[in-house]
Amino acid sequence: MAPPLEQWRRWIAENLLLGNPPEAIRAVLVKNAFSEADAAREVNAALESPYVQGGSRIANRLRKREWTLTVYGRLARMRAGSGAIERRERPSRDEFFEEYYAQNRPVIITGMLKSWPALEKWSLDYFRERCGDREVEVQSGRESDENYEINGPQHKRVMRFREYLDLVETAGKSNDFYMTANNGSRNQDALDVLWSDIDPIDEYLDGNTRDKSFFWLGPAGTKTPYHHDLTNNFMAQVIGRKRVKLVPMHDTSYIYNNVHCYSEVDASAVDHARFPKMRNAQVHECVLEPGELLFIPIGWWHYVEGLDVTTTMSFTNFRVYNDFAENYTTYQHL
């Protein structure tokens, strides 16, 4: 069934505001059962609408902002080794906040977690022994939903931790279930005994680790699709390896942000025919090893894939300002 006329009119207005030529818009209308005269009349009416004309002024201002971001992108590409994520051995507090946090640059920090008992103790058997009978919350049924991350609340399931550990151990490669930060509030209490196995990262984080840290556990094959967070984040790898792809905040216009902080692009197999602008995005890639700490800057798009059974801790309680969500309002479709 053809879309109603009002839906076509919204489509015409949107495409005019995006800068698409009127003749191209008319051609699409004709291909969708509009007569030449009707197509011309609808496009001309939109062009003459004071609402569209006002919207065009706003769109032009936004294009100026987008140009500014492309300048940052070009300059970033000039930096030596710009496609790689730098690895640093325990940078000082001042070095980290000046060179990475304040400059919105990712970095992999090595050596900072070497005192963690978790690196030696944590295993699926250890989890069973310590808190196997606790009830935890996980994401389940993800493979049947293309938008499993956006629809995360619909996939929450409560179960015994040992039951979940059995699933992880026997699953092989799967993205159907995953314990993530979206399950954080319940699991911080259920798994509280594990927090004694991680030492505070006092060099960069404040003392509020208990309330702003999150436990991730899943089989090989788990995926977190391209998205950006509303905070700066640390990702501390404890068990197994994860492949991480990051796209800078200034390349947002290339990554097809369709709703809130999510992208339509499947980072595991980018369809460049459907998403041609992705060819312009600068993709930084790394494999995060146990004992490494990845800094993911605010606004950077990231995709994460478990290469093995993995356990990860993430943290947002930095010693400096990290409340970038306070003036974020674009939760709706873009």
Automatic annotation (TrEMBL):
Q: Which domain of life is it from?
A: Bacteria
| Record-annotated JmjC domain positions | 183-334
- Do you know which Pfam families this protein is assigned to? Cupin_8
Record-linked InterPro entries: Cupin_8, JmjC_dom
Family annotation (SMART domains): JmjC
Protein name (database record): JmjC domain-containing protein
Task: Name the species this protein comes from.
Answer: Actinomadura algeriensis
Q: What lineage is on file?
A: Bacteria, Bacillati, Actinomycetota, Actinomycetes, Streptosporangiales
